[in-house]
## 1
Amino acid sequence: MIGKVRRGGRVAGLLRYLYGPGRANEHVNPHLVAGWREPDELELPLRAGGKRDFTRLTTLLRQPCAAIGEAERVWHCIVRAAPQDRDLTDAEWAYVAREVMHRTGLAPYGQEAEAVRWVAVHHGDNHIHIVATIARQDGGKARTSNDFYRLREVCRAVEAELGLRRTAPGDRTAAKRPTRAEREQAGRRGWSQIPRETLRRHVAAAAAATLSTEDLIARLAQVGVRVRLRRRDDGEVVGYAVALDHHRTAAGALVWYGGGALAADLTWPKLRARWRRTPQDELREKVAAAARAALGEQDFFRRLAEQGVLVRLRHSQTNPGQVTGYAVSLPGMTRTPGRDRWGSGEPIWYAGGRLAGWLTLPRLRRRWRTGGEDWARAEREALYGEAAQAASAAAARIRQDPASAADAAWAAADSLRVAAAALGNPVLAKAADEYERAARTPYGRIPAPSPEGIRLRSAVRLLALSGTMSRDTTLAGVVVIGALTSLVAAVADLRRAQQRAAQEAAARQAANRLLTQVTVSATPPAHLHPVRLPQDPPGQSESMVREPRHGW
């Protein structure tokens, strides 16, 4: 059983619609099943011509608003049974309506003469409409805060009592669904996708691969999404909205959607939470971006300086004028003498090879000299390996310590999005859509950061730098998919243990799709447990794997 709440300001118009034929003559035998008084006292009388007289009921519903000098405000609730459920009787629908009004606090039991006035109309198709005016009869103001979530609780309780099909609790993990008007508009105009859903996919994919407001705007612009930022008086960004050029109002204005109107984890605070990273991750990402964009050695070091990266060159001992390597750091990335922690003191330097094997100066020079095909292949394999290791470490954390696994489960959604784009794989893209709900923390909370979650996001952001490889089916690409399959399966098990049925179903569906992709790939992994790549230290758990140290 599902419920929906709407608000309006014309009770007479709503009643006429409910008692009318409907938009497609779907309304059959409309009648009252419940109300703040007995239905027989409130049912609409027939006029001489056979039409219903709405005057008395409309006046009675409006009276509490007029008594306290409030404008007419209407609370409209639709409660519908599942198509698989039996047809409920009028008595059962009356019970459902009274439970809704009681548990939402609009008309508690025993307060029929003091609470709001309301009626419930049944006109076929196994659902009812509850119409109430938001003003109490005792002169107080009715409160409707969190009414949608109270309604979800009512539906769940009624399902159990009446033996109906069970639905998921309202944990605020589902994405915002398109409205009926949006669906009908897309159908009329022949759009293949509803704008709200298109925007959600674009924003989720861009947020997974970016680290700043500017980068987010640039990535969204590449796919035709406009962005409007909301700033405080001091200039700090506190919100945003997105729109598509072809989605406009009748007056020609763009239709804007805030992040929260797309999904619970796409609000501005949650986008910023995605961008958490360690100083070493930030340094690696800046160096990798400069290496990919540079046309030569001098251009590479110039781009590093423009990003605020400190560079120290290593010169040959036999030929002091020859540069043989480099090391990088960031302002503030220092350690106190004698202590291995951040603080004031000498900068902490990372050689290029320590950040990634394909970032050593000899390999970069070979790329600039030969055009970079071999370098790009080595880079992709290294990035795939890092992503697979990070996914395996996240899966291990989820299985070993479920209490602290929320961030790793959330980061898995970003990894699927980026991997789908990097591999050009539509199966992964579909799995990412299916998995979205399983990743979210209930009630819109931001999970506490974890090393595994931060590492996984850093790895997939580097993977995003490598671009699209047109459905890569090499061993490295298959290993990434296998590791992601194991990660999503671990999340499905976690949600089952947490008794979150809807999230478990979302993760299980995505895991099955990924498993199918692994099965049909050229060289599927031997198992779906966390993948250990050759460079992992023997006997060391995936969650404790450290990056190998390389020379300059």
## 2
Amino acid sequence: MKLKLLLAVLLLTITHPGSAVIGQDAEPEQVLAESAVIGQKNAEPELVLAETELLASLAGGYTTIKQPDRAIQLLEETLSFNQTLANPCHKLEILTNVAGHYAFMGQEAKSSALFAQAQKILETTKYCEPKPTGSARNDPQNWVLVAAGRHARDGRHDIALRIATSFGDNYLEDMLQGLLYTYTDSGSRQPDRAAEIQLKLADYYNRTGQSDKAVQIWLFLVNYYNETGQPDRASELQSLASKAERTFNSSSASTQSRQNQAQIELSRCFAQKETNILLSIRTIVETLDPEQLRQILNICQEVEPAEQATEVSALTLKALEQIVLATQKIANPISRSRTLTAVANLYANVEKDAEAVKLLNKSLLTLQAGAANLPSDARYEASRALEEIIAGYLRIGQIAQALEVAQLVQTGKLNLAASDFSQVPVDSKFAYQSLMPPIVAFYAQTGQFEQALQLANTLGRGHRDEALRRIVEQYASKGQYAQALKTAQMIKSLEVQNKASVIYSIIEQAIEARELDWAVEATQTIEWTKQATQAIGETIDGATNESLNYRNKLLLAIAREYAQLRQFDRAIQAVNMMNSNEIGNYRRVQALSAIAREYAQAEQTEEALKLLEQAVEIARSISSPKASG
């Protein structure tokens, strides 16, 4: 279900590059750690920001236990820090955060006044720093999104949405997309919230004349609402999508717009049981001749939505057959191969595996025939096409064919660049090994872990580690956390992902599955600093700070889960395991606040009050020079 909510994000990022990273928050512990290194004077603004965020959050806790005066006191204390900050974006975040909390308290006049101040800063500030840089922290809008994202992750959904919608249409698209990414990326257990954001995005697109984007969202939410037992809502959205104006033949429409419209119509044709076929559809749209594509779209427009709820319609199969015929006119062998693979994926999506195999075989032959005459600068693109063929075979369980393809490269019968070395000549052995991690992952996915491990251990170090990482993912997805952890510790290093982050993800999944006792033990027994030093270029000091970050975040998640289970003593024990410098105190306050919230919901107000007071005291120490190490 989460995957399907992500599909609209994927479609939007195709037409709105960079939107998927909007709203990502820098790790607070990382910022605090860096601040500690550069010295107290320079660190103070970041420490102050951490303190104000925590105090405002704790104000929400007091509101929950019906102590509005105490909440207002903390909010006003938070606002007072603006007088000590020079950076307008720091002030922007504080104003936005506090405005959201006043809205939560029902004080609309105060909230609106603060949002107005924040909007003035947003409209008059080009960069957060004196000079433009590529850092997301230099974009004023991202500071608003950080505030909204934190509320979303902490369960204050109404505040998050209020923040995202309080700055007008000029900012609304990026705000909503940033908030949507927060929900989908954070592993939220409330996909209905992500759906709510998507509906607001669709409404925005529809009323601003971007009906193609609105239809994209409506069509994918139809599946979501059908799966969640809300057929009336699904029918309503299907009707909206069907009535939306489609202008494929408009001469005034840009090529990009026509392609977007085509992707929408093709997704409606082929998304019967799975909607994760967007990339295949995009390949088809980008490679087919416009006139042939128009013929296919004409067939698709005749497909009734009701037909998609049962078996594959004859019209859908006719459209697929037409695409196969159209591929014959694609001159470039790599493009023709990729398009054939894309159509094979669509056949697999409608459970026509025999047709899918035929097309994958044809795709491979096309690539082989063209490989002999490929210029050297096209071999990398060809290797990616080969990866897609292997993935296509694996998608329908054809492991023998996938291995045969890899062996063509190993024996030098298909001479391409390695997929992870753009246009760099490499030997056949290295190129072969670059293709193997997905095959290893298939064995693990099907429960053949011993075979997966044996195959991984035949690979060179970099590819072996990537294969092991994929085995780890499969162990964890099946709830075999101890085996996942054991396998992760076999990894030597990773080019892209820190080994410690792989271990972190295992324990995080165990926490989400509420295997809390095991997670506590694992968190305490891992030598985090040792694992973090194996990241490329990581220093000992950096690894130490990073290891504290991983450990504290896990303990925070554990404390929250125990509190939700009303195992308050265990939750407090997890808090006490955190370190007590400014790095650990940030998470400590968050944990105490979360436990207090659960106490309040259990009508144990006195206990909640004690924890909130303790948290306030710790929060106030973060920007103080006396904060202990």
